[in-house]
């Protein structure tokens, strides 16, 4: 009896919660502003149908069974039958989940492949390439064609595909703009790619979701999707009014700090691309000293490393030659 | 090797200072109490050196409850911190340490010891054996687990806690980004505990395969024994991976190698791959025994045999095999391409198929049964709908493309708490209520048990259900704070209130144990629940140290149920009783645990000379063990007869 009441109460509170959360806040995942995020939302909605079905059937069966077969004083001498199983039933409840898994797998795979491509309808528009470098604890965006670099904000034109080329200057991060697309890791000496289109003007929040130390909580950025005219205007102003970034300043920038928004009229790609396997490292363990007992760090290795580096750089030049031949 | 004495203790935080004082006072209190009541001998001879599987099990469970408390306090601190936006209760560094230790302690030092403790108590009894295959190794397993746990736990007062998450992802966990000794604790403490767990796995495989009583074929084993066997197999397959991974991580941190670093050509994703190659099977290591526990309890309290025993066995075998093939779903977002993600999406979703079969089998076990709402059964019942939520959200996360939006958000956190809490913690509670009378000779109070049940369930759902929505709103895990404008506040606050109710539920359990020890009615009936089905209920309550006067013979599943039905096998002929050979106690495992603890501590602080000196102690211990001749002892017939007479005489199906 008590069980039933409890179930009712919890069902009601869950319902209440759904209503409350639906009203007060916005579920950013369900408010997509671009085709990539919309494709994911459609997939999630599709999964809700089947998962809802499973929930209803199993919970319904559960409530029915524990209500109907509960022990009561009247049935004290009821002897339950000695049932070993039922092959037919067992086959049925193996097959139904298999069907549901197939129904969920097909659109998942379709979406996975679709997310790799420029979304439908935008194939003819030339994509804007932006290099994203994550560092502790800031986001650096480089526009190689426009020769602009921004920190902690990125402006993009609407209705034009943007190819984000992601890498990291140190720890691993995850680049996420929930309104526009799913997330992707940024890793040092690796390059990952994320294609994004915004089909609505507006300001969207983006952040790191992969824990990377003390400043992680504040590692956010803003995406401003602008009309092509506004975007062009911003590019022009940024080029004219912003200072040049020097390598020295860049080294300062990479130190583990929080920064506000910055704009430069050149990019750090001129001297380093962190996605490159032999790129120089700008990290200094001493800057990460916190409370607690200090451990040994291995600076002597670093020196050895940079010696190797010079040798490797020579190989790299050859490599570079090959690549440019593509 | 220079020792910086002034930096040894963590200082500068009133919370930590308070804990330091509390720890010293508690230790002084325990030592004083043991001395005052002259209990040192009792403690050493009766418990710390005892190879009795039931006592080792109890020690595991005590450790698990203590660690539950520690991990729970960590959880509460996190909830307090995030209850309001831009809170300053904890700073970022402190919060990072707290969520790291919360995760490690709950999985490795709470869930694992609890389940291994229950396995220790129940398995030999269920298969009709007198102990495990290697009793002294079993005790060593316990001491290594305990040493690992203690080493890990001192970190927050001495030297600083690990702060790179329970997954300890590189390169963050490397010396390049966390140069303190905190993450050394992770690498070394888990290594020590892991060796203990690996030996437990070996021990239980041998025990279950070689020590079953006459007639108990594999397909007549109780379901909990089956799940423990499969869990032990996964332990033996998966833990060596973790051993190697931790070793490589330790090399990076202590000796400057470059397996996972960003400099010197290290591969940070290699850590993630190796970690989850162990880590995902690890989830099933803790969840499979729980499935077994529920199977026993549901069958008992519905008065029906388990529905579809054969398909249950096939399901757990399939789940264990699939658990090794899904590790990449923890990082679909590493950009490896749609082909790889497709494969791992499919393998991950496939796990839901055997799990679904189990769900329906449990439901159909209850159908046409007579369901009694006892405390253990209530936990088993609550498991079904809550775990279902964990399961279906698991399928949602398995869909790689959708996961790009859930990954690393609180949606994920809600999901895995919805699997691990009903899947492990509820099972541990169910098992405690169920087997408690068998071990101690009295039941835990049903009335306080109901308080425990409702507080914990309501608190749990209130804490974690809002986190699904927080995740979809864009709130990420491991973030120590959030802004006012984010709009996360109401749900975070709700979740914080839930955590308080959850804590009250845990307090009710502790009170229940205290109350029941003092006031509960004592029983010596071998089957206090009245409807038990398996062999552990065929012997005396509490179980005598030799378990069975004569080893039972089995000719079907649910052996004890058949005995009752046919009224067979209860008579004990005095002439059948022979002296019983039992293993002798040993002090060596406890000493080895202590040496490992000190050895690990010196390694953490990178004092290699001291570590090497203590390391000689480990080798000496191994040599001592090799030349030890501890043949055990025999329980004399008179003692057995006397004991068997007392409890059998009172029973209604008394022996003639």
Automatic annotation (TrEMBL), chain A:
Subcellular location as annotated: Cell membrane
Database matches in PANTHER family: CYTOCHROME BO(3) UBIQUINOL OXIDASE SUBUNIT 2, CYTOCHROME C OXIDASE, SUBUNIT II
Annotated keywords: Cell membrane, Electron transport, Membrane, Oxidoreductase, Respiratory chain, Signal, Transmembrane, Transmembrane helix, Transport
Topology of the protein relative to the lipid bilayer: Multi-pass membrane protein
Coiled-coil boundaries: none
Residues that span the membrane, as ranges: 47-67, 88-106
Protein family per UniProt: Belongs to the cytochrome c oxidase subunit 2 family.
Organism annotation: Perspicuibacillus lycopersici
EC top class, as a word: oxidoreductase
Gene3D superfamilies in the cross-refs: 1.10.287.90, Cupredoxins - blue copper proteins
Catalysed reactions, semicolon-separated: 2 a quinol + O2 = 2 a quinone + 2 H2O
Protein name per its UniProtKB record: Quinol oxidase subunit 2
Record region (Disordered): 297-326
UniProtKB/TrEMBL annotation, chain B:
Domain of life per record: Bacteria
Pfam families on file: COX1 (PF00115)
Alphabetized UniProt keyword annotations: Cell membrane, Copper, Electron transport, Heme, Hydrogen ion transport, Ion transport, Iron, Membrane, Metal-binding, Oxidoreductase, Respiratory chain, Transmembrane, Transmembrane helix, Transport
Obligatory cofactor(s): Cu cation; ferriheme a
InterPro entries: Cyt_c_oxase-like_su1_dom (IPR023616), Cyt_c_oxase-like_su1_sf (IPR036927), Cyt_C_Oxase_1 (IPR000883), Cyt_c_Oxase_su1_BS (IPR023615), QoxB (IPR014233)
Protein localization: Cell membrane
GO MF terms held by the record: copper ion binding; cytochrome-c oxidase activity; heme binding; oxidoreductase activity, acting on diphenols and related substances as donors, oxygen as acceptor
Annotated Cytochrome oxidase subunit I profile domain residues: 38-555
Main function: Catalyzes quinol oxidation with the concomitant reduction of oxygen to water.
Name of the protein described by the UniProt record: Quinol oxidase subunit 1
Organism expressing this protein natively: Perspicuibacillus lycopersici
């Amino acid at each position: 009896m008590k069980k039933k009441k409890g179930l009712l109460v919890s069902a009601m509170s869950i319902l209440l919660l759904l209503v409350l959360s639906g009203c007060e806040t916005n579920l950013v995942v369900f408010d997509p502003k671009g085709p990539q995020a919309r494709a994911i939302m459609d997939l999630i909605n599709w999964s809700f149908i089947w998962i809802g079905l499973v929930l209803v059937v199993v919970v319904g069966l559960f409530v029915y069974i524990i209500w109907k077969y509960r022990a009561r004083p009247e049935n004290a001498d009821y002897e339950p039958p000695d049932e070993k199983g039922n092959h037919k039933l067992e086959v049925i409840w193996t097959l139904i989940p298999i069907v549901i898994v197939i129904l969920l797998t097909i659109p998942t795979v379709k979406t996975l492949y679709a997310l790799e491509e420029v979304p439908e309808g935008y194939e003819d528009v030339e994509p804007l390439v932006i290099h994203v470098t994550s560092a502790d604890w800031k986001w650096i965006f480089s526009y190689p064609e426009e020769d602009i670099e921004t920190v902690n904000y990125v402006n993009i034109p609407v209705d034009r595909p943007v190819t984000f080329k992601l890498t990291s200057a140190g720890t691993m991060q995850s680049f996420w703009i929930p309104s526009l697309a799913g997330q992707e890791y940024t890793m040092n000496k690796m390059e990952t790619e994320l294609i994004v289109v915004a089909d609505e003007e507006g300001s969207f929040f983006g952040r790191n979701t992969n824990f990377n130390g003390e400043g992680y909580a504040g590692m956010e950025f803003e995406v401003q999707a602008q009309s092509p005219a506004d975007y062009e205007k911003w590019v022009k102003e940024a080029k004219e009014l912003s200072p040049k970034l020097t390598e020295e300043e860049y080294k300062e920038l990479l130190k583990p700090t929080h920064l506000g928004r910055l704009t430069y009229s050149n990019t750090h790609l001129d001297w380093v691309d962190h996605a490159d396997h032999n790129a120089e490292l700008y990290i200094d363990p001493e800057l990460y000293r916190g409370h607690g007992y200090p451990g040994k760090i291995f600076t002597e290795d670093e020196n050895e490393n940079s010696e190797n580096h010079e040798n490797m750089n020579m190989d790299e030049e050859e490599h570079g030659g090959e690549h440019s031949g593509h | 090797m220079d020792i910086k004495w002034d930096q040894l203790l963590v200082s500068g935080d009133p919370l930590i200072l308070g804990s330091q004082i509390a720890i010293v006072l508690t230790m002084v209190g325990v030592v004083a109490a043991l001395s005052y009541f002259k209990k040192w001998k009792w403690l050493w001879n009766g418990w710390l050196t005892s190879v009795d599987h039931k006592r080792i099990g109890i020690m595991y469970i005590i450790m698990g409850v203590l660690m539950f408390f520690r991990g729970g306090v960590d959880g509460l601190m996190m909830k307090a911190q995030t209850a309001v936006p831009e809170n300053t209760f904890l700073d970022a560094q402190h919060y990072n340490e707290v969520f790291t230790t919360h995760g490690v302690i709950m999985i490795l030092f709470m869930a694992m010891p609890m389940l291994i403790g229950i396995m220790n108590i129940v398995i030999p009894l269920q298969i009709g054996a007198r102990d495990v295959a290697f009793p002294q190794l079993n005790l060593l397993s316990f001491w290594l687990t305990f040493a690992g746990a203690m080493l890990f736990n001192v970190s927050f007062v001495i030297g600083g806690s690990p702060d790179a998450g329970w997954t300890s992802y590189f390169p963050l966990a490397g010396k390049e980004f966390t140069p303190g000794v905190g993450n050394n604790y992770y690498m070394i403490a888990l290594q020590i505990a892991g060796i203990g767990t690996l030996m437990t796995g070996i021990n239980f495989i041998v025990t279950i395969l070689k020590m079953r009583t006459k007639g108990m074929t594999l397909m007549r084993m109780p379901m909990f024994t089956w799940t423990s066997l499969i869990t032990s197999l996964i332990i033996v397959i998966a833990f060596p991976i973790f051993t190697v991974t931790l070793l490589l991580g330790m090399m990076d941190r202590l000796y400057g190698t470059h397996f996972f670093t960003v400099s010197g050509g290290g591969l940070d994703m290699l850590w993630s791959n190796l970690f989850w190659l162990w880590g995902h099977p690890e989830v099933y290591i803790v969840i499979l025994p729980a499935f077994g526990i529920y199977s026993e309890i549901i069958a008992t309290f519905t008065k029906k045999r388990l529905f579809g025993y054969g398909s249950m066995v096939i399901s757990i075998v399939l789940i264990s095999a699939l658990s090794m093939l899904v590790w990449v779903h923890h990082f679909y977002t590493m950009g490896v391409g749609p082909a790889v993600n497709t494969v791992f999406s499919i393998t991950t979703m496939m796990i839901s198929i055997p799990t679904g079969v189990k769900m329906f089998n449990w439901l159909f076990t209850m159908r046409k049964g007579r369901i009694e709402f006892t405390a253990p059964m209530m936990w088993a019942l609550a498991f079904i709908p809550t775990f279902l939520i964990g399961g279906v959200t698991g399928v949602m996360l398995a869909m790689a493309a959708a996961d790009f939006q859930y990954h690393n958000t609180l949606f994920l956190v809600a999901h895995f708490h919805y699997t691990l809490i009903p899947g492990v913690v509820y099972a541990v509670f169910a098992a405690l209520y169920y087997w408690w009378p068998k071990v101690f000779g009295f039941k835990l109070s049903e009335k306080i048990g109901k308080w425990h049940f409702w507080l914990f369930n309501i608190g749990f759902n209130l804490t974690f259900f809002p986190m699904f929505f927080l995740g979809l709103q864009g709130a990420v895990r491991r973030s120590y704070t959030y802004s006012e404008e984010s709009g996360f506040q109401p749900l975070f606050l709700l979740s914080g209130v839930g955590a308080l109710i959850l804590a009250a539920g845990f307090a009710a359990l502790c009170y229940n144990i205290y109350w029941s020890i003092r006031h509960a009615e004592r029983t010596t009936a071998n089957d206090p629940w009245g409807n038990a089905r398996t062999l552990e209920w065929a012997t005396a309550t509490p179980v005598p140290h030799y378990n069975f006067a004569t080893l039972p013979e089995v000719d079907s599943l649910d052996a004890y149920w058949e005995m009752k039905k046919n009224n067979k096998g209860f008579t004990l002929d005095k002439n059948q009783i022979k002296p019983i050979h039992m293993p002798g106690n040993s002090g060596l495992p406890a000493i080895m645990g202590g040496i490992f603890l000190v050895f690990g501590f010196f390694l953490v602080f990178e004092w290699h000379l001291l570590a090497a000196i203590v390391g000689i102690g480990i080798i000496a211990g191994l040599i001592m063990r090799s030349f030890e001749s501890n043949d055990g002892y025999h329980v004399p017939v008179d003692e057995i007869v006397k004991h068997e007479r007392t409890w059998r005489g009172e029973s209604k199906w008394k022996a003639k």
